[in-house]
# Entry
Amino acid sequence: MELRLLRYFVAVSTHGSLHAASAAVHVAQPSLSRQIRTLEAQLGFALFDRTPRGLALTAAGRAFLPVAEDLLVRADRADAAARTIARGAVTDLTVVAASTTVADVVAPFVAAAGPAGAIGNAIEALPEHVYGRLLRGEADFAIGTLAPPEEYEWMILGRAYVWAMVPTGHPLATRSSVSIADLVAEPLIVMDRTHRARQILDGAVARAGLSYTMAEETSVTALARGLAAAGRGVAILSDDPIFGLTTVPITVDEETLAITLYGVWDRSHYAARAIQRVLGDLSRFNSASYPAINVPTA
# Structure
């Protein structure tokens, strides 16, 4: 089965007629019609119903369309990878990470890297789905907040503080840190349980044998910061502050609550060495640029 025939099939499906598709793929309409019939013969089923009003996908055609589209996407990726390898350079790597990590860690690094930067795309995923999407080949590497699977290579990129965020007039705002025992005396604005900051908080509270009063729960970090700025509680987040909020580190037994950031990649990836270099650069960038990121020296 030729990829060229699949492209013709997808074009006709997308444009809705042979006439429009022929212009899009620059193939004469009679030739395009013959190519579609050739593909149908190879597949053993009709892709289109041919009526006086035009072409309409058959049930089999509708079922086969996403398969054809997936094959074409994979072929395009293979071509791009081959061209990159042939040039001896790595560009447009795709990273998968949680949305907060993309916004606060990946995007600033990409901006600072300039035109020669190696990261070209990012996929946002819930923390527990990050490594699964890497496993399915949707990204070249991952930045996760959970311990990586054993089969992957990884390095620690840093540790992002889990902050207590309060307005400048709040009693906690002038403190250099707040203990978990003092924190739970406040009404807390927390993220839903899919967010790593919430998971870290809940784990620390449980280990200390404490509990807290939930003022609000949300799945949107910007809203949590807005609620804190409005004076409706103390927001527990790892994001950068906005709305004039002040960030206060949270301590448990003299240790600061933080989210460990892992750079994770497949050792068999064609660009494994380049990915490792990019992650090393990202680790150094975080250490130099962001006080919210603490990169261990060992």
